[in-house]
Amino acid sequence: MTNFALWQSAKAIYMRPMTITPGSVPLSAPDLGALILFVVLVALIGWVVEHPPRARPSVSVLMARYRREWMRQFVTRQPRIFDASVLEGLRQATAFFASACMIALGGGVALIGNAEQLHSVAQDLTLAQAGVALEWKLILVLIFVANGLLKFIWSHRLFGYCAILMASVPNDTDDPRAYPMAAQAAEINVTAARNFNRGLRSVYYALGALGWLLGPWTLIATTLLTAATMLRREFASESRAVILAGQTLP
What we know:
Helix 2 (29-50) runs parallel beside helix 8 (216-235) and helix 4 (81-113) runs antiparallel to helix 6. It contains 9 helices and no strands. By secondary structure, it is mainly α. It has helices at 3-15, 29-50, 59-76, 81-113, 115-124, 134-167, 178-209, 216-235, 238-244. 76% of the residues lie in helices and 0% in strands.
């Protein structure tokens, strides 16, 4: 086929009128409502966790205070091997979750790319009649997996920055630069932890979004369950009570 013939074929496809039938609309009213609830709770929980009431701080806020205290104690600690080990453990955790998200993302993209196999699996699991194309539902899951991957990668990089800043803190406590540089390292550490927590929340959201495979009402149920789980762990867990007990940090 000549280039002119290829151009004529492409032109014909481009100029062909598109018709939208009612059946081609991907979202029903229950699906749209469930999706809106999901998005609203995702944004609301992120805000509440990172900007909680002063009278009831979240675990993330409490741990940020401990991270700043860690850097203040770091100035006078000799030797500093313990601090290096803790930071290396944090970097390994971010690397682990980043690798897991990358594998999940690759598998999900490959599954969406194989439409025939995807619909065959949907029929076997009786998911084909759920109303919305299965690809749309998986894309929602993959959006949060991809977001988690980006957050974990950035967190890993920030913990690396923190390691460099910690190494540059003077050993002499009389040095006027010691505590200001330790405070800089603390803020980078807090920022890295914030991104790590956002990545974890994205993993939770991705798991909650899997409920859409069974229909909009299941998505509503898994959304509420995911929200309740995260709020309990941030504001009403036993670990929070232990962290908060006797805390006198600024």
